[in-house]
From TrEMBL:
Disulfide bonds join 149-166. GO terms for molecular function: calcium ion binding. Keywords: Disulfide bond, EGF-like domain, Repeat, Signal. This is EGF-like domain-containing protein. SUPFAM superfamilies: Growth factor receptor domain (SSF57184). InterPro entries: EGF, EGF-like_Ca-bd_dom, EGF-type_Asp/Asn_hydroxyl_site, Growth_fac_rcpt_cys_sf, IgGFc-bd_N, NELL2-like_EGF, NOTCH1_EGF-like. Residues 10-50, 53-96, 97-137, 138-180 form the EGF-like domain.
């Protein structure tokens, strides 16, 4: 806008401050006889008489470039500033993230980690601590039950917060998170049918041997469907002291019968970890077995037994039996029979490969026997079962008498590939049976003092190796196999008839055992398979093994490693066997009486998550 003067001389309204332009943001420009008004540039707009601030932030005409920079309007202009967590570059028009963690400008606890986020940070407590990161409280992993130790190990909180260690219990071997062994707290077992001689007033009995390192409470129970008198004779509660053994006698009436579902399983429960063994005595002969804890039972088993001495007499029958831990357990038996052999069940004829299916509830048992060898028969179940097999009474050579044969069978996923089979002292020899636990072909090699060989087995087939005297046998297979040892009766001797023993695999060895030697046998022995360099580390009841009690020693080599196989004479009672250097070794227990014998392994389970 322009104003005109009437007088002859020009007045400078701008200089005299007589203009009417906006006083704060207007600009006055003098002209002859007049003046002009405009708004200051940049930052203002208007006609000069009225000027207002331009908000560059609202109009987005600013040049604050970084996404984490913000525009702040000022009178006539703007400024750029960086958001929290960023620092300015180029007058604030660009922003650089501040690494608070790297600059140690955070407020995290000393046991927390600073984690950079966009424009900020967060605090996370280190492993072994918990809270919001600005304060951190140590976690006691073991005390709070947050560890991943095996249930068969001791968890110990270490002084360094959040750190802990797992140590397997006595009799187990492993890193503490996985512990291998055949000890436990809950067991289920049965007693198979034995030879019954009506002229013998001694009907025999079953015995359960329980061995405990610690003070423990024991409960023996049976099905509520068992006859009242039989149940009352078996069910009981008792206590055990430190490093002790207890023998519980079980009535012969609880033995299972053929081809019928019965309520005859016996449950053993202990408050502390124990080892359990069973012995079945028919009045003349015995055999024994290690009893496996319920939590290591499986759903797939291959059966071992022996060819009956006389097919015409059921007294020699091979037999298998199983007991259920849970209700509605469906068990399928896939028969392995020789060509031409038949098996009758419920009026129906079954042949090789045929299946028999039974359903059991908890505490129920089922047994089959046959006048042929049942070795290779497959047991599969919907839930874990305890499986036993052997022969009612059998003789494995021309002389001597028949003897009851029994072992509890480990599940197929616990079997090994490499075995050392010790000799049986004061026997005519040893029969070693190798059973394929695989479909298809399984090739294994075997080595004795006098020979070696290689054999290929078909699906669930078996092969026998018989050695005499004090020879040990090494079996090395490409695939998992089941290996059994049979102590053969000695000619013209009264020190026992055959007995059946599961052989532990080399990978099933542990470094500590707590075992019983049963009552009523004249000679008892430990067979120990240990690496040669650890022989001197062996301890029997906390003492070195006496040379005068070592009745035989053999040497074998397994995969380039030298082992010694010792036979040590021991007394009846509870024994602790271990190595000072924690080296693992195998242990089998056997013994002889007048026309009697027994044998069992101290561990037959491979590594498992427990």
């Amino acid at each position: 806008m322009t104003k005109t003067l009437t007088r002859s001389s020009d007045l400078d309204e701008c200089r005299d401050n007589t203009h009417t332009c906006h006083r704060s943001y207007g600009l006055c420009t003098n002209t002859y006889g007049r003046f002009k008004c405009s708004c200051k540039k940049p930052g203002f707009e208007g006609n000069g008489f009225v000027c207002k601030d331009i908000n560059e932030c609202v109009r987005n005409t600013h040049d604050c470039r970084h996404p984490h920079a913000k525009c702040i309007n000022t009178i006539g202009s703007f400024t750029c500033s960086c958001k929290t967590g960023f620092e300015q570059k180029d007058g604030g028009r660009d922003c650089k993230e501040i690494d608070i963690c790297q600059k140690n400008a955070h407020k995290c606890h000393r046991h927390a980690m600073c984690v950079q986020t966009i424009g900020s940070y967060k605090c996370v407590c280190k492993i072994g601590y918990r809270s919001n990161g600005y304060s951190c409280i140590p976690i006691k992993i073991c005390a709070e039950g947050l560890d991943d130790c095996s249930k068969y190990s001791t968890c110990t909180d270490l002084t360094q917060e959040g750190r802990y260690k797992c140590d397997c219990y006595f009799g187990f071997f492993g890193d503490g998170k996985t512990c291998t062994g055949s000890r436990g707290k809950r067991y289920i077992l049965l007693f198979m049918k034995v030879l019954v001689d009506p002229t013998n007033s001694r009907l025999g009995m079953g015995q359960i041997y329980i061995v405990s390192e610690n003070t423990t409470d024991v409960k023996i129970s049976t099905s509520k469907l068992l006859t009242k008198s039989l149940k009352q004779s078996i069910d009981k509660k008792l206590s055990m002291s430190l490093n002790s053994g207890k023998v519980i006698t079980i009535s012969h009436s609880v033995r299972v019968n053929d081809a019928i579902v019965e309520n005859k399983a016996v449950m053993v429960e202990t408050s502390e970890v124990t080892s359990v063994f069973a012995l079945n005595h028919d009045g003349y002969t015995s055999d024994s077995t290690l009893v496996l804890p319920i939590d290591r039972l499986g759903v797939k088993y291959v059966i071992p037994s022996t060819e009956p001495h006389n097919k015409q007499h059921s007294d020699y029958n091979s037999q298998l039996a199983f007991g259920a831990v849970h209700d509605q357990t469906r068990v399928m038996i896939t028969l392995k029979l020789k060509r031409g052999s038949i098996f009758k069940y419920k009026g129906k004829i079954h042949r090789d490969g045929d299946k028999i299916i039974v359903t059991l509830n908890k505490y129920q048992t089922f047994q089959l026997s046959h006048n042929g060898d049942l070795t290779g028969t497959l047991i599969t179940s919907s839930k874990p079962v305890a499986v036993f097999s052997g022969n009612r009474c059998n003789k494995l050579n021309r002389y001597g008498f028949c003897s009851h044969l029994v072992e509890q069978i480990p599940p197929m996923d616990s079997l090994d590939t490499t075995y050392i089979v010790p000799p049986h002292f004061k026997r005519s020899g040893t029969m070693v049976r190798v059973v394929s636990a695989q479909t298809g072909s399984t090739t294994f090699s075997y080595t004795t003092d006098k020979s070696n060989g290689t054999k290929t087995l078909g699906t669930f087939d078996n092969f026998d190796i018989t050695v005499s005297g004090k020879q040990a046998v090494v079996v090395d297979s490409k695939r998992q196999v089941l290996v059994l040892s049979f102590g053969l009766a000695a000619r013209r001797q009264k020190n026992g008839d055959p007995y059946m023993t599961m052989v532990p695999g080399v990978n099933q060895y542990v470094h500590q055992y707590h075992v019983p030697v049963p009552q009523g046998f004249e000679q008892n022995y430990f067979a120990i398979m240990v690496q040669k360099g650890s022989k001197s580390a062996l301890l029997l009841d906390n003492d070195s093994i006496s040379s005068k009690n070592t009745v035989s020693e053999a040497s074998v080599t397994v995969k380039g490693q030298d082992y010694v196989v010792l036979t040590v004479m021991v007394n009846q009672g509870v024994h602790r066997v271990e190595t000072k250097d924690r080296s693992r070794f195998g242990l089998m227990i056997y013994g002889h009486g007048h026309d009697d014998g027994y044998g069992f392994a101290a561990n037959i389970l491979g590594p498992g998550k427990l």
